[in-house]
Amino acid sequence: MPELPEVETIRKSLLELVKGEIITKVDVYWPKIIKRPADLLQFKESLQNEKITDIKRKGKFLIFELDHYSLVSHLRMEGKYGVYPAETEKDKHTHVIFHFESGHTLRYHDVRKFGTMHLFPKGEASYAMPLIQLGPDPFEVNYSLSTIYPKIKKSSRAIKNILLDQTVISGLGNIYVDETLFRSSIHPLRKGRTLTEEEVMVILQEAQATLAEAVEQGGTTIRSYVNSHGDIGMFQQELFVYGQTGSPCKKCGSEIEKFKLSNRGTHICPSCQRIS
Fold first, then answer.
1. Is 127 exposed, middle or buried (0-12, 13-18, 19+ CB in 10 A)?
2. Is 264 annotated as catalytic?
3. Phi, psi (deg, nearest 5) at residue 234
4. Which of 54, 75, 152, 242 lies 20 to 30 angstroms, CA to CA, from 188?
5. Which residues fall within 8 angstroms of residue 92, CB to CB, at 6 or more apart?
């Protein structure tokens, strides 16, 4: 699943490609992707003649800002956007096509069909599902110790599971949580209530730094991720623990280990991240 750095990279590349484009028609081939409005015809008609003025991001969500609407898009596991000439043949995994006045099209491609789209009148998206449930994004002003520490301190869950909870911090996924906890010297199984204020501050700082570095590298290419230009991310070359099972730790030389936590592959250095 694309995480914050991948979604931010997609946002930047899409903005270069479609900002200023005017939508003339929308084709939807898999209606279940459209969650709001419930009336598919209303979704299509509302977008006609709308100009894409900006693309924003909240956590792992893309927000297409139009003249009168905001389109909130969640890529989920395999969602991708691409820009193509109108005459390009549609493949079987393309489920939504936005036709532009320029003759180009923006196409949403999703092998698993898990992605979602919500259309809101301008200014309403932040106050409704799915965005209203999200915790602070690591690049927002309210991403702070005072906001997040109380949520962690009162929890008996493993810190990895807390950080994966999008209502606590939005944008973190399996790759970057493993990397953040390694860089913080915190074992993923540590209970939230056992962490000190100082330890949580380190986690927040390392999460932000890790994500910033990943954004700079264009994200992490694991399996099938590419941005909207078709380029792969390069941050996988900087990974300390994720996907490094059996390799020597870059800090101490111990062998990187992998285990399951809540059915998620979890990577640690047993020497740098002691549980006690």
1. exposed
2. yes
3. -120, 0
4. 75
5. none
Classified as helix, coil or strand, 247 is coil
For residues 29 and 95, give the distance between their C-alpha atoms in angstroms, rounded to a whole number. 5
Task: Give the whole-angstrom CA distance, residue 40 versus residue 34.
Answer: 7
Give the C-alpha separation, 175 to 210, whole Å: 10
- Pair of tokens at residue 158: 């493993």
Q: Which two tokens stand for residue 257?
A: 């280990």
Distances (CA, A) of 38 to 31, 34, 91: 10, 8, 26
Q: Which residue among 57, 60, 107, 160 is the active-site one?
A: 60
3 is catalytic: yes
136 belongs to the catalytic site: no
Give pLDDT, residue 218.
75
**Over the stretch 30-44, which tens digit does the pLDDT of each residue have?**
999 999 999 999 999
SS3 category, 249 = coil
Q: pTM for the whole thing?
A: 0.91
Active-site pick, 238, 257, 264, 270: 264
